[in-house]
Design brief:
With about 425 residues, this protein is of the alpha/beta class. The chain is about 35% helix and about 15% strand. Helix 14 (about 280-290) links the parallel strand 8 (about 265-270) and strand 9 (about 290-295). The two termini are about 30 Å apart.
């Protein structure tokens, strides 16, 4: 056996399972010790060094650290790492005097960030203290991106979002609200910026093109519907609601429906529970609120009579699962009709880049996603970087933060003519 190579920092991450599992490599053991000693402000600041948004993530992180926690080897459940982050955020003192500050003298480099979500804000957080001139282009009239529009306020209060985002913006970032970038070519040809970062998320919900889909106005795309609720455009929903899909967005949709006075909310899952995409704690929260989750129901048809949605037809499915846990495509063994007033489709999200021309040196793959280096976050055109859902498709906030850190390092090297792969 070869001696342990401690010359590479990655070794120390791997030694601590939870820290290695966190995409941003948050120093979990240290901040938990600080919380145990009542040092909430220190725990918050240690968190912020890596994950940037302790208060936000303490409420809505997808918790990749917890399945890796060693405590689950000796007890039923891991340490509540995520919720402890919130403990630090909620019990800390005023930490504004400890936050990084931008120097008065800039370094002469200008960076454009497209989108004001978690990935772009992380890039700004890392580059502003180094003297960069940061301009954020945001299509909405507020910051936060999908964190604000797609996560219900009962899970993530606006005050928490505003506070942690303002810690970054107040360092001197310029934000152009209601400014949708319509042409990447025009932005690049303008020559104003030394580098461009794209953090626009995955803003398009997937469709479910079945018979009857376009015969009623009571069938919604999940992320669009959540945005309408966030902006108070949608203030009510029918008594009986079906949620199609069983990911975290579906859980937000079903719980939000209850808060808009729905009385009977069902989540329709095509596969068995072991194959759900949503987190266990998201399912538990929904079921505690009396949401019914029906497994092995594959959508077949939207039933509309005289222009009114009255329900849906589903194939009842059976599956075979092999010894390695792989599931087959299943076979229909029956059909069922379920009454409803509204249907919300939450079956996934997609990237959408109609504003990026395909002849400017940015290559796209077969799924119409940009081809991005997973380490440097730069695409095939030099000086253009991607991060968050815009880079590799829908993930979660902590991955957006990790991408933002990587992109900031690469941007710093790129604009100073250094090897970004070094």
């Amino acid at each position: 056996m070869k001696p342990t190579d401690t010359s590479k920092p990655g070794y120390f991450h791997k030694v601590v399972d939870c820290q290695w599992a966190c995409p941003a490599h948050t120093d979990v053991p240290s901040y938990i010790r600080m919380i145990a000693q009542g040092q909430f402000s220190d725990a918050y600041m240690l968190n912020r060094e890596s994950n940037v948004f302790p208060g936000i993530l303490g409420r809505v992180c997808d918790r990749p650290c917890e399945p890796a926690c060693r405590r689950s080897r000796v007890e039923d459940k891991p340490v509540a790492i995520c919720r402890l982050k919130r403990v630090a955020a909620d019990h800390r003192d005023d930490i504004t005097d400890q936050l990084p500050k931008a120097p008065e003298k800039k370094n002469g480099k200008k960076i454009a960030l497209i989108g004001a979500g978690c990935a772009s804000l992380t890039v700004a957080n890392d580059l502003l203290p180094l003297g960069y001139d940061i301009t954020i282009f945001e299509s909405l009239d507020m910051t936060g991106g999908l964190m604000r529009t797609n996560i219900p306020q009962f899970r993530l209060p606006p005050r928490v979002l505003d506070e942690e985002i303002n810690y970054i913006v107040d360092m001197g970032a310029k934000i152009k609200f209601n400014h949708r970038i319509e042409s990447m070519k025009d932005l690049l040809d303008n020559g104003e910026f030394d580098a461009v970062f794209v953090g626009t998320g995955a803003p398009r919900g997937k469709e479910l093109k079945l018979p009857g889909r376009y015969d009623s106005e009571n069938i919604y795309i999940g992320i669009d519907w959540l945005e309408s609720v966030a902006f108070e455009h949608a203030k009510s929903i029918g008594e009986k609601v079906l949620i199609i899909g069983v990911g975290n967005t579906a859980m937000d949709c079903c719980r939000t429906s209850l808060r808009l006075h729905a009385k009977d909310v069902k989540v329709m899952a095509r596969k068995p529970r072991a194959f759900f995409k949503s987190s266990d704690w998201e399912l538990e929260d929904a079921e505690e609120e009396q949401v019914e989750i029906l497994i092995n129901h594959s959508p077949k048809e939207f039933v509309v009579e005289d222009g009114k949605l009255i329900g849906m037809k589903f194939d009842q499915m059976e599956y075979k699962i092999d010894d390695e846990g792989n599931i087959d495509r299943g076979s229909a063994v029956g059909e069922v009709f379920i009454h409803c007033d509204d249907v919300i489709l939450a079956i996934g999200q997609e990237n959408a880049f109609p504003w990026i021309e395909r002849d400017i040196g940015i290559e796209f793959n077969e799924w119409d996603c940009p081809i991005v280096d997973e380490t440097t976050m730069m695409c095939s055109r030099e000086g253009v970087f991607f991060g968050g859902d815009a880079a590799f498709g829908p993930k979660n906030i902590i991955w957006g933060v990790a991408h933002g850190h990587e992109a900031a390092i690469s941007i710093h090297k790129y604009v100073h003519q250094k090897d970004i792969n070094d």
